[in-house]
Amino acid sequence: MKKILIVSANYYKEISKNLVSNAKKRLLNKKIKVSLLNVPGVYEIPIAIRKNINKYNGFIALGCVIKGQTPHFDLICSSTFNSILNLSIIYNKPIGNGVITAYNISQARQRCKNINSKKPNKGSEAANAVMSILENGPQNI
Fold first, then answer.
1. Phi, psi for residue 56 in degrees, rounded to 5
2. Is 72 a catalytic residue?
């Protein structure tokens, strides 16, 4: 049985809760064992994944960063996303990036609605991405 660790940044609790709920639903429907690790913010996601890299088949990074008046948003997003990508490549493990980047809380809420909504949910999208990598291999053509 495949094991996935969801690493959720809880800075915006309402957003994170919706993302985790939707990702978890997708994974459990596929009979994947799911664990959850909460971290304070998205900047802590890469180290949490790295500490657990050998214990799981894949990871899902969830959280939210909202742009403010300073360059902090750009620095946090860039360093976090690059670190997640590097971990995935170096350790050959799929990491679904469901971290929402938004200009305001309203935009963030739109991107983490209930799974039955017509709008996409970044949590379920990240879960789908990881499952796709774990389930699909090369095909003879």
1. -135, 155
2. yes
